[in-house]
């Protein structure tokens, strides 16, 4: 089969402005719940795009760990490539794709570090080996081989056999949304797109052409 022969018709659902909450966070929570209920593989996985010092975009997947009235929280290494991009330019874009529901959500906004105590709290809930991994991995750096990574992890584990403290270079970011768009696939590529944009303290809801 040729790539150009691969195509799906989207027929499952519709999205009308009237069915959407006034607040995009509530709307997101509703869709997130439905994605989990539909047993979407990795329902919390999202792409995050950042911009480097030359104005060039780069992106990768991360996991959403919390949604609250302020925005969307994920965790990473602050010294990673994404971390250094965010330090220079806090504006990011997030994208979720839930194929089983024929849905996409796009979020654009400004990123802030969450308080250290909140990162401590989440770090403590991670499995032991993940906490060791946070110390062993100098995320995004070039390393000579995998063996050296395992050796570093073993050293860290020997040092912290029980309690692993959070490295201060590892923690959470909160993405405070300025626009949130909900996309529902429809037949004939005439999809539904409802975008919320923040104006002063209000959310304006608009339908976009597909
Ligand atoms: C499904 C999935 C979830 C991921 N979740 C995270 C995450 O929550 N935090 C993280 O730092 N990296 C996560 N990664 C790894 C990142 O995609 C990426 O490789 C890593 O963060 C380094 O990115 P950077 O060099 O651009 O900073 C995940 C990868 C996948 C495929």
Automatic annotation (TrEMBL):
Q: Which InterPro entries does this chain map to?
A: Pyridox_Oxase (IPR000659), Pyridox_Oxase_CS (IPR019740), Pyridox_Oxase_N (IPR011576), Pyridoxamine_oxidase_dimer_C (IPR019576), Split_barrel_FMN-bd (IPR012349)
Which Enzyme Commission number(s) are on file for it?
1.4.3.5
What does the note under cofactor report?
Binds 1 FMN per subunit.
Which keywords does this Swiss-Prot/TrEMBL entry list?
Answer: Flavoprotein, FMN, Oxidoreductase, Pyridoxine biosynthesis
Q: In which pathway does it act?
A: Cofactor metabolism; pyridoxal 5'-phosphate salvage; pyridoxal 5'-phosphate from pyridoxine 5'-phosphate: step 1/1; Cofactor metabolism; pyridoxal 5'-phosphate salvage; pyridoxal 5'-phosphate from pyridoxamine 5'-phosphate: step 1/1
Q: Which SUPFAM superfamilies does the protein's record reference? A: FMN-binding split barrel
What catalytic reaction does the record list?
pyridoxine 5'-phosphate + O2 = pyridoxal 5'-phosphate + H2O2; pyridoxamine 5'-phosphate + O2 + H2O = pyridoxal 5'-phosphate + H2O2 + NH4(+)
**Boundaries of each Pyridoxamine 5'-phosphate oxidase N-terminal domain copy?**
33-156
Q: Which family does it belong to?
A: Belongs to the pyridoxamine 5'-phosphate oxidase family.
Cited function: Catalyzes the oxidation of either pyridoxine 5'-phosphate (PNP) or pyridoxamine 5'-phosphate (PMP) into pyridoxal 5'-phosphate (PLP).
Instruction: Give the record's subunit note.
Output: Homodimer.
Q: What is this protein called?
A: Pyridoxine/pyridoxamine 5'-phosphate oxidase
Record the organism: Haemophilus quentini
| Underlying gene | pdxH
